[in-house]
């Protein structure tokens, strides 16, 4: 078995969610950007329609997102329950960055019109592609 395959299988078996997120990254911002760009460009999609969009937030942009998220949640979560929400948001804010994934619905809609015999499948295929990007 090749080393890369062994490393991949080991990573899959040993994968765990890590909640001790920190402001440090083992790789450069440029490397993070390159990984995202290559993933978006080369992940397959139905009819090669490339519906997934990705936003990378680093530094103050990352912090601002989690500050806004906390502020919005504060309006919805009862005060007596908010401390656990605040802890979770602080944990995310303490991370190095955030990657947001979106689906461009205008492309999904245009393919639904262009290929009516497949129209009911395009929303599902779009979500499947998005899932592959996030893996």
Description:
- This protein has 135 residues and is mostly helical.
- It has a single domain, classed as NADH Oxidase, CATH 3.40.109.
- The protein is 58% helix and 10% strand.
- The chain contains 6 helices and 2 strands.
- A two-stranded antiparallel ribbon has the order 1-2.
- Helix 3 runs antiparallel to helix 4.
- The radius of gyration is 19 Å and the shape is globular.
Main traits of this protein?
single chain, 135 residues, mainly alpha, NADH Oxidase, two-stranded antiparallel ribbon, 6 helices, 2 strands, globular
CATH class: Alpha Beta
Count the E strands: 2
Described by the principal axes of the CA atoms, the overall outline is globular
First-to-last CA distance: 23 Å
What is the CATH architecture annotation?
3-Layer(aba) Sandwich
Radius of gyration: 19 Å
Low-pLDDT regions: none
Content-based structural category: mainly alpha
Average pLDDT rating: 91
| Fourth CATH level, the homologous superfamily | NADH Oxidase
Order of helices and strands: HHEHHEHH
Number of helices: 6
Q: For the largest sheet, list the strands in their spatial order.
A: 1-2
Q: State which percent range the strand residues make up.
A: 5-15%
- Main beta sheet: 2 strands, antiparallel
Task: Kindly give the count of domains.
Answer: 1
Helix content: 55-70%
CATH topology: the name is NADH Oxidase
